Amino acid sequence: MPQKTLQIAILNLMPLKQATEADFLRIFANSPLPMTIDWIKIKNHVAKNTSQEYLNTHYKNFEDIRDTPYDGFIITGAPVELLEYEAVTYWTELQEIMNWAHEHVPSTLYICWAAQAALYHFYGIPKYPLSRKMFGIFSHRVNDAAVPLVNGFDTAFYAPHSRHTEIRKADILRIPELTLLTESPEAGVHIVTARGGRDIFITGHSEYAPETLHTEYHRDLNKGLPIAMPANYYIDNDPAKGIAFQWRDDAIRLYINWLCSF
Known about the structure:
Number of helices: 8
Largest sheet: 10 strands, mixed
Strand order of the largest sheet: 3-2-1-4-5-10-9-8-6-7
């Protein structure tokens, strides 16, 4: 019997669209499951770092895909976390897309800012500014190893974070519908699930390529922004020794577990 081809859609809100595409394609290349991916854009948002010609060629608008029976949906992070949600120019369209995914897609992953936005939209969970950027690779623990999404994870596993805001554990625990699946002593809330795993909110960036935090670090240094060296990222905390790509296997495991849940 032929294997089903999964249909995945990714709403890419990241500024460097092609780098984000490469991140996910690299992860999904490890999956034994055949799949197709549709890249989705916000209709009325003008991208600063990607040409409109490229977007028109390779991306679809929400109205083009709303009748497509996807198995899984991903909404990426976005560099707007210091804005109030309602001040984001595409907030209304994003709310419409989140509501649609909630009703029509078996499982949706919300990543970084999108996780914060979805938890606010659906459950009223606030975000809080951090005194310094959460930036680096952090160790996490699994709170319930029986959940298939974390099947095969070690007692401690690693994931990148790059954000200026946080959601807090106490706010999550006040909502009975939410489950705090993984967390970090340093980075705090990591994976929250709802509706039996249909909604998955991830505050980190497991999909990041090895060099992404290095690029962000030097970008901010060159702009004169206050930025600390990414924690636990360089070998012996020495940039000259290179990057310790210690989250690779955990990232692959997370996404393959998600794909196998359909």
